[in-house]
Specification:
2 copies of one chain form a homodimer. The first copy, chain A, is mostly helical. Chain A has 35 helices and 5 strands.
Chain lengths: ~725, ~725
């Protein structure tokens, strides 16, 4: 078997999801298929090779669902284990207990550390590229950040020493009456916390009360450590994030090029002076790689690759295949409205046309914006008033009428198009509100009682409707679109945070479980005011009624960790838990701060900055790949980026008219009535955009470095030897 | 008079400080001089034109000092005016009072708004380019940020409505027992404050105690508004900052090019086929523009411009003149040590050479690092112990010995070179500590009493000495150098913050003056516990002993504003002041948050990020301008970037040896014994670096757009039509 085939067989371990535009899987497949084809050059193409079948099996949605399902089970185990929200019956946890219990009986009081490692599954499966990248980012940033961190800790220690000397002997007292700044370790902790700003200005007040000038010490500290060092952390994290992002994208782009070249070399035949791929093997290749492709789609692709209809294509055109297959081409049949087909006379009557014109008119949108604003005022008013309660039904009916009118005017399948976010949003909100209100009314009339849960849902749905006003204002839409655009990636950050939270929650539950108890506020249990722990007597923790902030189950732990991420009252929480366990417990909180606030939150900020910068730099210009241009040239693409959501349908109509005047071309005629929409530019990810930018900069004949070199690309050689003005600032 | 002269006469309004490397003043001068010269072509060059004399007069340090002095007086007026730290005797404030009083008598109770406008002077004078840029940044960012802000406020309002509906009717109570989330305005305020994180998790606790699920509402709010929106604000501010920074730099670079071309056109004479400038007028030009230039320096410049010693220079070489004049060329006479001159026998004796070798050795540095660490431990120990107190004298003498040894080994003028930051730091700290300790000992023995102020100073100096350890560790030095590098610019940010604080402090003093009083903690005045204001009874403000946080004088106001900038306990402060005045007072605090935290702090972060990114992208590569290369080629430059602070002198010695082997060249010989040091790269500003990058990208023959076009450059056309991979992420 030739080397290429072996290579392909040996490297199918990391196929990326088919949604991703980076196309590695296609390249793998092409290489695998092609090498196979070469090996069995006489065998018919019908039987698709096993690797491809396995690939599709792996990528099938059911398999994905099963993977997620098991991950969920794995992670949710903590909900049922001992510090549990919902304790499980004994038998179910039997197996786990047998292992744990057998260790217990031989007197090994093991802490089940494996629990903290569970979320590792979440990182190590292929769909979570962003999570893995963030983890790699963290790992790669560590050496750089370590030195900044050491310097920062050095600075904290220097300031602690100063504080000890300046304030230690003054006999000052804090508000709680404890001695102020007498122990160097406590000072260092307080000053570390001051970096999180969580104890400002309390930590300063005793010294400030004593002498005005001492405030300068704290202001200097805050400027140096809180502002400058924290910004430097962000700079280091951001710089690393950017560097590794670029390196990865470069790697992916070169890998793609490399594999496509390999595929070409296998399929190529010599034609005159150059090597080409003939139409027949190309068609077979596409059919094997994408078995479900429609014949019109295949025709379109061929038309793009083999522009001159010569029956073969050169290397440059062949290399595009992976990208072409990755472009989500939606075939739109610009159809007439179903009502027009069924009841042409009624739909085309004067009254009907007037309604359609009305709905399409700008004033229609404005009228509904005003209605939404009036609705907002009604919501703010007291809803005990029955009149207002009835008004709510009126508003709901108005919204339903709006949707019906739109469906009457626009083609329903276009209205509920894949990317029509706001139309979907609208309809779902209204429908859900309708269902919930009807359900509530039924319950109310039957049992004279309002279901609290349903009421809450109705309320939230009612208010979410107000979001629609945003869509009408152009400037808002741009920001919201960018935010929606980066939404999916933000969700993967949720995954990253989940992993870290999970680890810290498990550790927290091991350490603090049961130390702080929460009693119902209306129930006057004896220990209620001290959270069931005498150690908390007179503590601010108990005074502030923080008893519910505990590590008794996974959910509560997560909420405490959210509070710690927000950082405010960090000391209050840390001191509270230190009181019920041991002062060393503070290390847990400092560790959490370093990992989550200094590293992860900064990576999150870096990610949002990057996404907005890419969005800004694309706002003014257009990076179009050759492929898209070709689709445009053929006149069968409906460019979507100019089209506003919710107005798409109008535009499709317009384009339709434009096309009808086309002059003849056999191929084009054969595609007529069918339009291809390129997946909207607005919804592209930062990754995809960057990859296109990079690819547009490497020459078509550039085959890139060797595979080993590609795999060993280092982020540090990303920087050009002479940085230019544009990229440096 | 020709147009060029008029132009020069009409535009001397914004000369920049001579320290700035952007060289506009030189260009202006060149143009002015040259046009003048053309006008009086027969007049001898001796009399320098009036414009240049005025320019030097304006830029003389005395004039600068006078400007700063009056600005200080202007700003410090607030210290002596009515809510005053040091009340002035009546007569001195007479004139001011007459104006104010006469208005008072005719019953116009005017608030003296002019006071809040005073700091405008600080912005409007030429040395504060960074402050003005930051202000321009703010002004230019406003439209962009406005839409984000509106969207953000919309989101806050939507969430407020939800909170009102979800929690308003539950009858929940806050910790203080007041009703929870019943008034929409209060909810909006609380939720706005939650964005600052200042009331987390307190604002959530009542709802969380009531039902676990309600915490999801707050977590959603925090993710959307605190994390995402705040990052978007940073992205918008940063993007604008970057855009305007680049635009300004482009403008400056083109202006320079434009003016130098103008100057060339006036001086040029035709030589064969090309226009050139002859040596004689060039010499005159330099002498007029820089009257104090040393003849060796002039010779060096000529040698660089007229490389072939042809007696004239072409346009490209002439255009360099402004840059050449701006390079701080320090002439170093690599001299022998003064002791060697005076006592050659002793200094060259075996013992002396051993000492010198010892001091130069790496172990010498390590020994002193260990001493410093031991010193740190001693400081941390109790200093009441007389042994430790004596040890302090020992350490001080060790440090003095170190400095003396270094001065013995290294040439003193090189040791105290302009950029030898750490040598200066060392010596000043040690000398100050010596003086303070001696002063304290004298006072102690004379009056048996320790002066508190002197002791504090001694303590701080003693601890600052520990900073020296940083210098020994390479990785730390890089970070510290970058920080020191951007230090001066950070100071100008201090100016910006000062301006905004001043305005807010004046307004705060008008509104809150005298409402909150501070009593000495040891003095049990009747109102001490409620800060002298019954309205604060039972308030957390008084309970937390925040009485000193008031607006009774300028200094206290500034400290409160610092506390508000740090954001923590924002609610506590805002609620406190709202209690003593009116709920509307909260608007003052929200306004301050928007201006300072959302705008200025973000600009500060943007600035630090930018500075570090430029530093990082330069780390790997070197942007050398032709000028520096030429100086290097001539072999008379001592490149400093490889030279570590504190080790400079060694290197100079080395270079000296290297040079002595030079083979003959008349010009070079004439310069021998004299070395030019280019102002260290490490200490260059971001501006200067960016300008060089930009200039290295415009072709020498490119004269740039017309003057009007240059002045009307807009930041929006900075972006290239096709952003490339490097600059987009």
């Amino acid at each position: 078997m030739p080397g290429a085939g072996q290579g392909a067989a040996a490297r199918p371990q990391r196929p990326e999801s088919p949604e991703e535009p980076l196309a590695r899987e296609d390249l793998l497949l092409a290489a695998a298929y092609v090498s196979d084809a070469q090996y069995n050059r006489n065998v018919p193409f019908e039987t698709s090779p096993q690797a491809i079948r396995l690939y599709y099996f792996y990528n099938h949605w059911t398999m994905q669902a099963i993977t997620y399902f098991f991950i969920c089970i794995d992670l949710s185990l903590a909900l049922f284990e001992e510090p549990a929200l919902f304790p499980l019956p004994f038998l179910l946890t039997l197996i786990d207990l047998i292992i744990y219990g057998s260790l217990e009986t031989v007197n090994i009081h093991s802490v089940r550390w494996s629990r903290a490692l569970r979320p590792v599954f979440l990182i190590n499966f292929p769909e979570s590229r962003q999570i893995r990248r963030a983890f790699r980012s963290i790992r790669n940033t560590l050496p750089d950040i370590l030195y900044v961190f050491l310097l920062f800790m050095f600075s904290v220690l220097i300031f602690s020493l100063m504080a000890l000397k300046l304030f230690g002997d003054r006999g000052l007292k804090t508000v709680e009456g404890s001695p102020y700044f007498t122990n160097i370790l406590e000072i260092a902790f307080e000053l570390y916390v001051l970096v999180t700003t969580a104890n400002s200005p309390d930590v300063m007040m005793p010294a400030y009360d004593f002498n005005w000038w001492y405030s300068l010490y704290f202001i200097t500290y805050i400027i140096i450590n809180t502002y400058i060092f924290m910004s430097v952390f962000l700079a280091v994290v951001y710089n690393n994030y950017r560097k590794h992002l670029k390196n990865e994208i470069r790697k992916l782009a070169y890998l793609k090029r490399h594999k496509m070249t390999e595929a070409f070399n296998i399929l190529k035949v010599k034609m005159d002076t150059e090597f080409v791929v003939k139409e027949a093997p190309w068609r077979q290749l596409v059919k094997v790689v994408a078995p479900d492709i429609s014949s019109s789609h295949l025709e379109l692709l061929l038309r793009i690759c083999d522009e001159g209809q010569k029956g073969y294509m050169d290397k440059t055109n062949f290399l595009r295949l992976a990208d072409l297959l990755n472009i989500q081409v939606v075939t739109i049949n610009v159809k007439t409205h179903p009502l027009e087909t069924w009841l042409p006379r009624v739909y085309q009557s004067a009254a009907s046309l007037l309604i359609q014109k009305m709905v399409r008119h700008r004033i229609f949108v404005w009228v509904y914006d005003v209605i939404i604003l009036i609705n907002a005022i009604f919501i703010a008013l007291d809803e005990k008033n029955p009149l207002i309660s009835y008004a709510e039904w009126l508003f709901l009916s108005l919204y339903i009428v709006e949707i019906l009118l739109k469906l009457y005017t626009y083609e329903p399948r276009a209205y509920f198009g894949r990317k029509q976010f706001w139309n979907w949003f609208d309809t779902l909100i209204i429908m859900a509100a309708l269902v919930a209100m009807v359900a509530n009314a039924t319950i109310q009339s039957a049992r004279k009682y309002n279901s609290q849960q349903i009421l809450d849902i109705v309320l939230i749905l009612r208010i979410l409707r107000l979001l629609r006003v945003i869509v009408s204002i152009q400037r808002f839409r741009v920001i919201v679109t960018t935010l929606i655009n980066i939404g999916p990636t933000m969700l993967t950050f949720g995954g990253l945070v989940l992993v870290v939270y999970y680890v810290f929650a498990i550790i927290g539950m091991e350490v603090f479980h049961g130390k702080v108890l929460f009693f119902d506020p209306n129930f006057t249990a004896p220990g209620a005011l001290v959270c069931g722990n005498p150690a908390l007597e007179d503590s601010i923790f108990a005074q502030s009624r923080y008893c519910r902030n505990n590590f008794n189950d996974l959910a509560s732990s997560f909420i405490v960790l959210v509070e710690l991420t927000v950082v405010n009252h960090f000391t209050l929480l840390a001191n509270g838990f230190a009181l019920v366990t041991h002062q060393v417990a503070k290390l847990y909180f400092i560790g959490f701060h370093i990992v989550v606030v200094i590293l992860i939150v900064n990576i999150f900020i870096a990610f949002i900055l990057e996404a907005f910068f890419v969005a800004y730099s694309l706002e003014k210009s257009e990076v179009e790949t050759a492929i898209e241009k070709k689709i445009q040239e053929l006149g069968v693409g409906v460019q979507e980026e100019e089209v506003q959501d919710g107005k798409l349908i109008d535009n499709v109509d317009t384009k339709d008219c434009g096309f009808s005047g086309d002059d003849g071309d056999n191929k084009r005629k054969s595609l007529k009535g069918l339009y291809f929409r390129i997946a909207s530019k607005k919804y592209r990810t930062v990754d995809a955009l960057l990859q296109r930018m990079f690819e547009s900069e490497i020459a078509p004949e550039d085959e890139g470095p060797s595979l080993d070199e590609i795999l060993n690309f280092s982020p540090s050689d990303i920087y050009p030897k002479n940085p230019n003005f544009e990229n440096s600032a």
